[in-house]
Amino acid sequence: MAQKKFSIHDAQIITTQDGYVFDSFIITELNGELVEFDRRRELEQALTVALQSEKLPALSITPNRQLQHFTVQTDVRFLHENKKEHTEMELVALDKPGLLAQVSQIFTELNLNLLNAKITTVGEKAEDFLF
């Protein structure tokens, strides 16, 4: 979505026990405006092509110079869970274009399964809970 110049403000990702994935995203244009119909169609087509492909699309994200003015420390913490079937992780980082794509790529490279995620953007800070 970063390559298409969309901003994810909130997301919920749920994986069922039988392997179905339900993703819900609240997105806007990078400037915070609502996504118009033509742009929604463009995103729909891009997602369909990407998800039908065997190979993940390469990440090509242009750095945003405006983000240099913010100082959000990246913090990755594993929360202690009594449940042994999953590990819960909290990620706090500067909200930048492609952050979610980078996290997804790392999970894919490490062959990790995502059961549930809550992605939240608060100003310039992304607060993500993944397990």
UniProtKB/TrEMBL annotation:
Protein name: PII uridylyl-transferase
Bilayer-crossing regions: none
InterPro entries: ACT-like_dom_sf (IPR045865), ACT_dom (IPR002912), UTase/UR (IPR010043)
Native species: Haemophilus influenzae 22.4-21
MF-aspect GO terms: [protein-PII] uridylyltransferase activity; hydrolase activity
ACT domain ranges (all copies): 1-58, 88-131
Hydrolase found in the keyword field: yes
Keywords: Hydrolase, Transferase
